[in-house]
Amino acid sequence: MIKLSLYEKVWFLIFIVVGIVLSILWGDTAIGFVAFTTGIVCVLLAAKGSKWNYVAGIINCVTYAWVAYHSGLFGEVGLFLGCYLPLQFVGFYFWKKNTQDDGIVVMDKLSAGKTVQIFASSMTMVFAFGMFLSTLEGQTTPYLDSFTSVFSVIAAILMLRRWREFWFLYFAVNVVSIVIWLYQLADGNPYAATMLVMWSAYLVNSIYGIYVWYKTTRGDGVGSQYDDGKNKNNRDTDSRNADTQDIDAHNVDNQDVGCQDSDN
Predict the structure, then answer these.
(1) What is residue 156's three-state secondary structure?
(2) Which candidate among 127, 233, 234, 242 keeps its CA 20 to 30 Å from the CA of 193?
(3) Cα within 13 Å of Cα(130), Cβ side
(4) Does residue 254 register a pLDDT over 60?
């Protein structure tokens, strides 16, 4: 059973209440509100390290894709239905395999070098996908849409592997998504107000997720085996050296016993 802290309860209640109020004032649909609520639950459980975030994510993928389609965000539609939805099932499987007795998943980390490589590759894909989206009729914000789509896919993959760096990618995605929905709000989109609250909640939660996951994986804790291989090689070398020392110590003990027998 996952227990929520006072901060998490307050965070959840504040955004839920604001979401309800704005849904009523702006005339949002039931589907839009379900997308909002399940999204809030999903990211909160992800920050806690609970595999159940993927169950809420399944509902969120379908409902948010519906909202995105009716808002002209076709890259978001493809992202949530073609990528995010199947990854919810895969993610639940992998997180379940690595869940501890307290219900919290084992959290891992990447090396700084690998993180830079992933970021550079992601930006290249952003420009390529943005060029494609710009050719689609009705596409409103092609490059911003491309940024959120590409970074979200990479972040989702890192999240599957439980690498803490996915929170930084989601932080960037949340910032850009807020900008996108601000454009939608200016155009009079009825879903925009609720979606702005949802992505704002995501942004706050991503900061909290960074804090929790980095606090858990400080130092040489879990996940160092996924770095560039140097740490693993060093540990193997240290292990072999320790074994050699144990053998030498054993031989010395045998020699001491032999000397004592000779003296007798």
Answers:
(1) helix
(2) 127
(3) 16
(4) no
Tokens of 202: 């995501």
99 pairs with which residues across the strands? 105
Q: Can you spell out the DSSP letters for 72-85?
A: T-HHHHHIIIIIIH
- pLDDT value at 226 more than 90: no
CA distances from 178 to 50, 64, 148, 195, 201 (A): 26, 15, 10, 8, 10
pLDDT at 228: 39
Take residue 159 and report the two structure tokens written for it.
């999240």
CA 205 from centre of chain: 11
**AA identity, residue 194:** T
Instruction: For residue range 183-223, list pLDDT tens digits in order.
Output: 888 888 888 888 898 899 999 999 999 999 999 887 544 44
Helix or strand or coil: residue 1?
coil
Beta bridge partner(s), residue 163: 108
CA separation for the pair 15, 40 (Å, rounded): 8
Do residues 59 and 52 touch, judged by C-beta distance below 8 A?
A: no
Amino acid at site 57: G
Kindly give the interhelix angle for 30-48 and 53-69, rounded to the nearest 10 degrees.
140
Nearest alpha-carbon partner for 68 in 186, 148, 151: 148
Q: How far is CA 96 from CA 31, 53, 134, in A?
A: 29, 11, 39
Determine how many CB atoms are found less than 10 A away from the CB of residue 134: 13
Cα R_g (the chain), whole angstroms: 25
In three-state secondary structure terms, 105 is strand
